[in-house]
Design brief:
The chain is 29% helix and 25% strand. Strand 13, helix 5 and strand 14 form a beta-alpha-beta unit.
């Protein structure tokens, strides 16, 4: 039996420049902390090898402190062995990076920089497919089909890239063959690039990033514990929790009579978890003008509890009647502005987007008037 941990896409040094305050620094530190969490899982599970299937670093020119502190952390967790594969973000095209890593890497760090078999243990061969450039233009795993190993040897593939075109940027020549494990006689193919965990077949998996960096995948970060019992047996794979931050998207559908603040509070995670939670609240349905304002105020009150809390109300239609305008003003410039916005919001000659912009502006005006009145 051979047991190891499969991870990928650590993206050490990612800047998170789209966030403000101290959140980017907290997120960067969480990514560095992945190294310790993976090592702890390895010790607890009796695995002495951790395979990193590409994009260990976020760029081809990581800052010296990012690079050296990562290697120092890996050194501190010896005898756990780390195998680092070049991905598309940290490809072999960055010759300076990989020559520096070669000079600085401790004994328990293996750089899988050549398409050649690496012996992981007696009777276990690793077949890596390092990315030569950000877009190699060909299936780098193809060489595995003809890679010779001794009879009875467990064959583990390690690659970075798409099994299918996940985006319009991917060309067919860049896509890893979906039957690569079968064609190359692999007992397991460890893949990186896709940031959510994904099972391609019984012997082929993406681990996903161990520390999510976006709302897209809707899954907590994890790594995979893989047990290979022999050439005739399917791999036993189980998920290991690794993330320190939780990225959530919550849908909240409202009707006109609903209390939005109460509906929101029912969806939110417990207070103790909020500091480590990045939450996108997606509001849809219909709401009266006063209720929409109450929702905005409730979100503003909850924001300090979270690492990040965003409200997406593009799908929320604001219902407004002439009587609602009295709550803004009964006469004067504000009333005239409110009436004009209401007319635009109810004008069937305008596009749905234009009508919703008018409703949103009316809601802001309502909120302003209520704030002044209080």
């Amino acid at each position: 039996m051979f047991r190891f941990i499969h991870s990928s896409d650590l993206h050490l040094g990612k800047r998170f420049g789209n966030f403000d305050g101290d959140l980017p620094g907290r997120l960067r530190e969480a990514r560095h902390g992945i190294i310790g969490r993976l090592a702890q899982h390895a010790r607890e599970q009796g695995a002495d090898t951790i395979l990193l299937a590409g994009d260990t670093f976020d760029t081809e020119t990581p800052a010296p402190d990012i690079r050296r502190q990562a290697l120092a952390a890996m050194r501190d967790h010896a005898p756990v062995r780390w195998v680092i594969l070049p991905g598309n973000h940290d490809s072999l095209q960055a010759a300076q990076l990989w020559s520096t890593l070669k000079a600085e890497a401790p004994e328990n760090v293996v750089l899988a920089v050549e398409p050649a078999a690496i012996q992981l243990a007696a009777g276990v061969a690793l077949l890596p497919a390092p990315c030569t450039t950000r877009r190699p233009g060909r299936d780098m795993s193809e060489w595995m089909d003809g890679a010779a190993t001794a009879e009875g040897t467990l064959r583990v593939g390690l690659a970075h890239g798409a099994i299918r075109s996940f985006s319009e940027e991917g060309a067919a020549s860049d896509v890893i063959a979906p039957d690569r494990a079968a064609c190359a006689g692999l007992d397991y193919l460890a893949l990186g690039d896709w940031h959510g965990p994904l099972t391609v077949d019984a012997r082929t998996r993406y681990s996903g990033t161990p520390e999510p960096d976006r709302f897209k995948h809707g899954r907590p970060g994890e790594a995979l514990l893989v047990n290979l019992a022999g050439r005739s047996a399917l791999p036993e794979v189980s998920a290991l929790p690794t993330a320190s931050f939780d990225w959530q998207t919550l849908d909240m559908h409202l009707l006109e009579g609903d209390d939005p603040a109460r509906a929101m509070e029912a969806l939110l995670p417990p207070p103790a978890r909020r500091r480590q939670t990045l939450l996108k609240l997606v509001a849809t349905g219909h709401s009266r003008l006063s209720s929409r304002t109450a929702l905005t105020e409730a979100v503003a009150r909850a924001v300090p509890d979270f690492a990040l809390l965003e409200l997406d109300e593009n799908g929320l239609v604001t219902a407004c009647e002439a009587g609602d305008l009295d709550l803004i003003d009964r006469a004067g410039a504000l009333r005239e502005a409110a009436a004009a916005l209401l007319a635009e919001a109810e004008d069937d000659g305008r596009s749905a987007g234009e009508r919703e912009i008018a409703r949103a502006a009316l809601a802001r005006l309502f909120s302003y008037a209520q704030a002044v009145a209080s």
